[in-house]
């Protein structure tokens, strides 16, 4: 099983926990990191992680100006988000890889992804649970067919034969082409109608507002995805204890936590203020959100942590 991820220096904690959690549940997986500006110190940390876990971790350096001609619309993203488009070129001897964003944590077995038949499909991916209607319209994609690009099983011979990466870059560099979600938009446009849909358990959003009630929470989780700005190495977030469990196992190797800037702190404080005010005013949506938060911890997080503690020692 070959898993590829990409990162700049800011997301190294995510890369390391992605690797540690994947190996916890999938011994023998090997990894390639597309490196767009990871510091020497953090490269050394990743090397030490590979030695400790007995893992094969390759690293391919990518010039930091590689995507200077492309724009980023969402504030929480960097140009390293485009790295997945380079996989067919940078891994010429690979036929299939599982690309995973580095803000994911693995909670189960992934062998089904390594075996899913791709045939004439360029990718297999999970449909977004609640895509922006503007994005559906802009990409001319139907609800249930628009996919999140955070986890992709990639049919690399097809990508090379059809120059799919180049087509995505053309879409991204064309100012007349809609791209509300950057490379995700481009992938949905270029691969439209030829996406193998995966079980939602392989890309579950760890974003509390995604869930309207405790009953809407997922019943099965194999991969958690800390989408947008809910990064567990920055904040205490819903589902964050699962990430922390795997981070604690390698805590001596992880880089020091970065101090939050004023804007990040102000945003967090405002979010808490709105929650407290809404609860005090008896607003239903805020009380419902509190119920969802409790259900996440009691019904998903704590059972997972207990199961890991009871796991037989190898």
From TrEMBL:
The entry's keywords: Glycosyltransferase, Metal-binding, Transferase
Protein name: Lipopolysaccharide biosynthesis protein, LPS:glycosyltransferase
Organism: Paracoccus aminovorans
InterPro entries (UniProt xref): Glyco_trans_8, Glycosyltrans_8_dom-fam, Nucleotide-diphossugar_trans
GO molecular function, one term: glycosyltransferase activity
Sections of the chain in a coiled coil: none
Gene3D superfamilies hit by this protein: Spore Coat Polysaccharide Biosynthesis Protein SpsA, Chain A
Residue stretches spanning the membrane: none
Keyword Transferase in record: yes
UniProt key word Cell division: no
């Amino acid at each position: 099983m070959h898993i590829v991820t990409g990162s700049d220096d800011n997301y190294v904690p995510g890369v390391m926990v992605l690797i540690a959690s994947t190996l916890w549940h999938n011994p023998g997986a090997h990894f390639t990191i597309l490196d767009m500006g990871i510091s020497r110190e953090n490269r050394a940390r990743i090397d030490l992680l590979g030695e400790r876990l007995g893992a094969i971790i390759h690293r391919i350096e990518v010039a930091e100006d590689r995507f200077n001609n492309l724009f980023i619309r969402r504030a929480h993203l960097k140009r390293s988000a485009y790295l997945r488009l380079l996989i067919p070129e940078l891994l010429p001897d690979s036929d299939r890889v599982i690309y995973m964003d580095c803000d994911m944590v693995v909670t189960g077995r992934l062998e089904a992804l390594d075996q899913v038949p791709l045939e004439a499909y360029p990718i297999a991916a999970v449909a977004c649970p609640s895509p922006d209607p503007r994005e559906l319209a802009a990409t001319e994609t139907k609800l249930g067919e628009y996919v999140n690009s955070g986890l992709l099983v990639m049919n690399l011979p097809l990508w090379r034969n059809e120059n799919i990466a180049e087509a995505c870059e053309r879409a991204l560099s064309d100012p007349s082409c809609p791209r509300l979600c950057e490379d995700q938009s481009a992938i949905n446009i270029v691969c439209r109608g030829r996406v193998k849909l995966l079980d939602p358990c392989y890309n579950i959003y760890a974003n509390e507002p995604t869930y309207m009630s405790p009953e809407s929470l997922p019943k099965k989780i194999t991969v958690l995805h800390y989408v947008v700005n809910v990064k567990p190495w920055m904040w205490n977030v819903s589902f964050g204890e699962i990430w922390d469990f795997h981070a604690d196992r390698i805590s001596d190797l992880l880089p020091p936590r970065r101090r939050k800037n004023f804007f990040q702190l102000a945003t967090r404080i405002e979010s808490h203020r709105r929650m407290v005010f809404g609860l005090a005013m008896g607003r239903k949506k805020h009380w419902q959100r509190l119920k969802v938060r409790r259900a996440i911890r009691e019904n998903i997080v704590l059972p997972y942590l207990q199961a890991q503690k009871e796991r037989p020692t190898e």
